[in-house]
Design a protein that fits this description.
36% of the residues lie in helices and 18% in strands. With 348 residues, the protein is α/β, with parallel strands linked by helices. A 6-stranded mixed beta sheet has the order 2-1-3-10-4-11, sandwiched between helices. The chain has a 3-stranded antiparallel beta sheet with strand order 8-5-9. A two-stranded parallel ribbon has the order 6-7. Helix 7 links the parallel strand 6 and strand 7. Helix 4 crosses helix 10 and helix 7 crosses helix 13. It is globular. The two termini are 31 Å apart.
């Protein structure tokens, strides 16, 4: 590429600084940042050394107002106004199906923003977080547990969640086993093989590790933890007898049952938690404020009734406002109890 020849020593030094801030997992991002700058493309601006508050955010962000999410760039020239606008939804078993399900909303987002909007299928939570941090996606739905990682590592700003007409939202952690398993309580999991979804998942890993010891059973100590990769895989593995039990998100299991992916008569619930927030819908912190307002307008004006999206997510009818500071407080507490550190290494 011709623009490679335009990388000046000043830009190379910025690359070096970026590498230092993100070693060892993000060396490639430092190189891409320098390349973007050299090619005249937008790239994240490093927060000033005198940032009054950063909290748990990565060093390239600042949180001067204390709301726990990255502040918008202080220099308006750093705002991004991309076209096309790229939207991603949390990794699922069959991304192609969800691309179709999200199409009515994508069309609405396109109409409201006046931009070409594309759906981007991600294969993992780590890939989705990295895609937002590197600027490949600008609007995204992140699962409950990975949301704090997206906020702290990728500059994601949660603002919406799917809810009922009354504005209620949330899901529960449910532990499923086969009806013929002989498991009737959490303590019966002792010595068993139990599927957790992924290290960053709230209901699939972190919540069980925080909540189960109070119920008399400790993951890893009392039963073998096997990571399945997703809630879908955990549930299907229980049905197939590959796992003795699995903690999963109630909303995911409900959708699987509605699609006929398993027979509810073959399984039973042996534990259910209080309610947690569901997938957060976010925008990148450095988008142009006018674009952000249009994105918010698109979400809050979208009517899910009589759409595939509304049919897929039973019990919800619209997007409702949320804030990361308030609505993810319980999730941060669970992650704190697990000793979670918001680093790239822990995402992967």
């Amino acid at each position: 590429m011709r623009c490679l020849s335009r990388l000046s020593p000043r830009l190379l030094s910025r690359q070096t600084l970026t590498d230092a801030l993100h070693q060892p997992a993000s060396r490639a991002i430092g190189a891409l940042t320098a390349l973007a700058l050299g090619c005249g493309l937008a790239a994240p601006t490093l927060a000033a050394d005198d940032c009054p508050n950063r909290g748990q955010l990565a060093p390239i962000y600042c949180d001067a107002d204390g709301d726990l999410v990255a502040d918008a760039p202080s220099d308006p020239s750093q705002y991004l106004d991309p076209d096309p606008l790229v939207f991603a939804y949390t990794p699922v078993e069959d991304p192609a199906i969800y691309a179709d399900i999200w199409e009515p909303f994508i069309d609405h987002l396109r109409d409201v923003t006046g931009k070409d909007v594309r759906f981007y299928a991600v294969q993992s939570n780590a890939a989705e977080i990295e895609a937002m941090r590197s600027g490949r996606i600008q609007v995204a739905g992140f699962s409950t547990g990975p949301t704090p990682f997206a906020v702290n590592l990728a500059g994601a700003v949660p603002f919406a969640i799917m809810g009922s007409e009354e504005g209620e939202f949330g899901y529960t952690l449910q532990v499923y086993t086969r009806k013929d398993s002989g498991i009737d309580a959490l303590t019966d999991l002792a010595g068993k093989r139990v599927a957790h979804t992924s290290p960053t998942s709230n209901s699939g890993n972190l919540a069980p590790r925080a909540l189960f010891p109070e119920q008399g059973i400790t993951p890893d100590d009392d039963y073998e933890v096997v990571y399945s990769g997703s809630h879908d895989q955990s549930m299907l593995g229980v049905v197939a007898g590959d796992y003795d039990a699995a903690p999963v998100a109630s909303e995911v299991v409900d959708r699987m049952a509605e699609r006929g992916l398993f027979d509810p008569d073959e399984v039973k619930i042996v534990f259910e938690s209080k309610r947690f927030p569901t997938t957060s819908y976010t925008y990148a912190y450095n988008l142009d404020p006018e674009l952000i307002e249009k994105i918010r307008e698109a979400f809050f004006s979208f009517n899910m009734a009589d759409t595939e999206l509304g049919e897929e997510f039973d019990g919800v009818s619209k997007f409702v406002p949320v804030t990361y500071q308030e609505d993810w407080d319980v999730i941060r507490e669970i992650q704190k109890a697990n000793g979670v550190v918001y680093s790239q290494e822990n995402v992967e």
